Amino acid sequence: MENETKCPQCNSENIYQDGNLWICPECSHEWTPAKAGSESSAAPQDNTIRDANGNALADGDSVIVIKDLKIKGSSSVVKGGTKVRNIRLSDGGDGHDIACKIEGIGAINLKSEFVKKA
Questions:
Q1: In the structure, what pLDDT confidence band is assigned to residue 45 with cuts at 50, 70 and 90?
Q2: Structural contact between residues 108 and 101, judged by C-beta atoms closer than 8 angstroms
Q3: pLDDT at 17
Q4: Which residues have C-beta within 8 Å of that of residue 101, sequence separation ≥ 6?
Q5: Could you give the 3-state DSSP secondary structure of residue 113?
Q6: 109-114 — which CB contacts under 8 Å span 24+ positions?
Q7: How far is CA 103 from the centre of its chain?
Q8: What would the pLDDT profile of 56-74 be if each residue is shown by its tens digit?
Q9: Among 14, 44, 60, 91, which one is least packed by beta carbons within 10 Å?
Q10: How far is CA 92 from CA 15, 68, 77, 79, 112, in A?
Q11: How far apart are CA 7 and CA 45, in angstroms?
């Protein structure tokens, strides 16, 4: 019951409920309160990286970029439909969880939400 009276991120007591979400106005954190017994009945949290369609990705897979992606700090663009072979999954921390080499561009990190499994 303590999670419902304090923000789990900043421990502030100034929180409010908006529909199914609890919101902390101090740190802008939003969460749904855990109900008693829901942890055992909830789906297990696995750390698999999934593409835009929800398919699990693995090292060595080939993926297709689903939309044009501008490369920050460069005038290059990765075009939608580009096939990327032999990906490596990494824990980028910033959301870029695929390390790969793209012909004509070189080594790059991609977000899994912008690719689909080939």
A1: low
A2: yes
A3: 85
A4: 84, 86, 107, 108
A5: helix
A6: 110/65, 110/69, 110/78, 110/84, 112/49, 112/50, 112/51, 112/52, 112/57, 113/51, 113/52, 114/52, 114/65, 114/66, 114/67, 114/69
A7: 25
A8: 999 999 999 999 999 988 8
A9: 44
A10: 31, 21, 21, 22, 11
A11: 22
- Does residue 92 or residue 89 have the better pLDDT? 89
pLDDT digits over 46-58, tens only? 778 999 999 999 9
- Give the pLDDT of residue 40: 46
CB 87 within 8 A of CB 98: yes
